[in-house]
């Protein structure tokens, strides 16, 4: 042994001998991240439903924190007029937000509601231990499991169900976030929000109405029907939009439950001041889009400068406009024309979310009950037209001179109303004459729309802007044309 290594051993022994008494509960060397035994009476954790986050922890010492999380299997709306049976932690997808402090001793109770059909458990990525708690928490319906862990690492962590088939439990919405605050806490901000992405697999196609079953083959093939923030197409739009005022600081806790896709998380028209990428301890600055892996999370902070609707998307952009991964962050307050001179709402990015889609859901319910009225059909069609057709044909149906034919007062529509069905489904290329003017543009096939959506849009068009005397379109007649005509190569089906 050299003199250098003898010195090292001596120094190490000395260091262990000087370990401060508060650092470890039991005998032996202190664990990294262990801030000592819990102090004071046990605390019951406040759990919140998304997009809300429990209040900051101002404690200066570790505590025993009791978390009581109940699994509920619930049928809820996944899109307007579309129902899905979610398996949830705490009644929501994503599940309840859990907030503890580094060094806390967490007594975890997992309850499986007696009405549930399946066994469940929980794997918390913030837990150091086999399965992240999964093995200790397998719970049959009507039962409860309990285990305890010490939150050694600070950060933002995903939790999820890990009961076989694991992918199916996650795909049904069983994931959420747990924040382990650093001992000194996080810097105060004006708003904290909880947003978590997930991909969903239904037997019916996107926006096909009614109760939809889980599609295992689509999940295995990684071909989701929906990609959503907070478990529903409407969770972050309309009255559910996230809000702030100009000049405020905002912190987002962003997770991705998967089960399959990674998220290119982006907020149109904002730049994140800081992103704690991968939920870790370092941050990157001035970030446009941050990658959130499946089973991963991040913390993003930004400050608001100008008012408006800022659109939250997965920038794998078909997911935003054709699978539902779109939310709104609504900022109110004074304009600042020096920073941005444009109009307040950018309808290009809002798509059909600019209008409330409630009418679409009402029409779906009425159809299912066999009492769809003309008025309901027209209202649903208007909401869908706004998102899909109004960019070219214009919100007032006037079209654009020399480019896109008018739908308002259209002689073509009046003379051959049924021709609108194959045009909507299969597109139109080549010259067409409307009201004495010839247009030679390309209308792409809109076959990604469902039969009822096309029926409602065409009924809206033929009952608006002076168009009169045409029978409402039915989903059945759209289906008949869909089945008997060919789509152009590459069209949706
Ligand atoms: Cu489960």
Account of the protein in words:
It contains twelve helices and 25 strands. The protein is α+β, with helices and mostly antiparallel strands and 493 residues long. Strands 1, 2, 3, 5, 7 and 11 form a six-stranded mixed sheet that branches. α6 packs across α7, α7 (374-388) packs across α11 and α11 packs across α12. 43% of the residues are buried. Residues 87, 120, 161, 163, 169, 174 line the site of copper (II) ion (CU). Copper (II) ion (CU) is lined by residues 87, 120, 161, 163, 169, 174.
Strands, count: 25
- Give a list of the ligands: copper (II) ion
**First-last Cα distance:** 76 Å
Q: What Rg is obtained from the alpha carbons, in whole angstroms?
A: 27 Å
Arithmetic mean of pLDDT? 90
Mind summarizing the main beta sheet? 6 strands, mixed
Strand content: 25-35%
User: Which class of secondary structure composition applies to the elements?
Assistant: alpha+beta
Tell me roughly what share of residues is in helical segments: 10-25%
Molecular shape: elongated
Low-confidence stretches: 1-27
What is the number of helical segments per DSSP (H or I, 4+ residues)? Answer: 12
Question: Layout of helices and strands, plus pairs?
Answer:
Blueprint: H1 3-17, E1 43-44, E2 64-79, E3 82-89, E4 98-101, E5 105-112, E6 123-124, E7 144-150, E8 155-160, H2 166-171, E9 175-181, E10 191-200, E11 210-212, H3 216-220, E12 226-229, E13 242-245, E14 249-258, E15 263-268, E16 272-276, E17 284-287, E18 289-292, E19 296-303, E20 308-314, H4 318-322, E21 326-332, H5 347-350, H6 358-368, H7 374-388, H8 390-393, H9 411-415, H10 420-426, E22 428-429, E23 432-434, E24 437-439, E25 442-443, H11 451-462, H12 475-484
Helix pairs in contact: 6-7, 7-11, 11-12
């Amino acid at each position: 042994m050299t003199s250098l290594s003898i010195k090292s051993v001596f120094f190490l022994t000395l260091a262990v001998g000087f370990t401060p008494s508060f650092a470890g509960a039991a005998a032996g060397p202190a664990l990294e991240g262990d801030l000592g035994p819990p102090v004071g009476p046990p605390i019951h954790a406040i759990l919140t439903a998304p997009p809300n986050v429990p209040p900051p922890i101002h404690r200066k010492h570790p505590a025993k924190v009791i978390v009581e999380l109940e699994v509920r299997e619930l049928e809820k709306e996944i899109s307007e007029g579309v129902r899905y049976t979610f398996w949830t932690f705490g009644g929501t997808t994503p599940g309840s937000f859990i907030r503890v402090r580094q060094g806390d001793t967490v007594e975890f109770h997992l309850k499986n509601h007696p009405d549930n059909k399946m066994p469940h458990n929980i794997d918390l990525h913030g837990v150091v231990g086999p399965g992240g708690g999964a093995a200790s928490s397998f719970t049959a319906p009507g039962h409860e499991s309990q285990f305890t862990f010490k939150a050694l690492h600070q950060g933002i962590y995903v939790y999820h169900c890990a009961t076989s088939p694991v992918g199916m439990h996650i795909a049904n919405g069983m994931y959420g976030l747990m924040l382990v605050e650093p001992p000194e806490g996080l810097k105060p901000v004006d708003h904290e929000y909880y947003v978590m992405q997930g991909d969903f697999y239904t037997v019916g196609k996107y926006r096909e109405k009614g109760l939809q079953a889980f599609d295992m083959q689509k999940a295995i093939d990684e071909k989701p029907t929906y990609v959503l923030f907070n478990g529903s197409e409407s969770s972050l739009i309309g009255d559910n939009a996230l809000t702030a005022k100009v000049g405020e600081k905002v912190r987002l806790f962003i997770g991705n439950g998967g089960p399959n896709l990674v998220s290119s998380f982006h907020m149109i028209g904002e730049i994140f001041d800081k992103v704690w990428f991968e939920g870790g301890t370092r941050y990157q600055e001035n970030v446009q889009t941050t990658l959130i892996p499946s089973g991963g999370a991040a913390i993003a902070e930004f400050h608001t400068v100008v008012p408006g609707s800022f659109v939250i998307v997965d920038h794998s952009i078909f997911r935003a406009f054709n699978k539902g991964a779109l939310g709104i962050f609504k900022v109110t307050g004074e304009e600042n024309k020096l920073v941005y001179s444009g109009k307040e709402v950018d309808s290009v990015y809002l798509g059909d979310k600019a209008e409330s889609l409630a009418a679409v859901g009402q029409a779906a319910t009425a159809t299912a009950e066999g009492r769809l009225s003309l008025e309901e059909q027209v209202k649903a069609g208007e909401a869908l037209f706004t998102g899909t057709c109004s960019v070219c044909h214009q919100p007032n149906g006037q079209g654009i001179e020399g480019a896109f034919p008018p739908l308002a007062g259209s002689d073509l529509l009046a003379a051959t109303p049924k021709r609108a069905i194959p045009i909507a489904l299969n597109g139109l290329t080549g010259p067409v004459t409307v009201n004495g003017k010839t247009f030679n543009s390309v209308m792409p096939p809109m076959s990604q729309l469902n039969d009822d959506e096309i029926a409602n849009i065409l009924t809206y068009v033929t009952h608006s802007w002076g168009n009169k005397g045409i029978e409402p379109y039915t989903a059945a007649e759209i289906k008949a044309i869909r089945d008997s005509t060919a789509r152009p190569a590459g069209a949706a089906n």
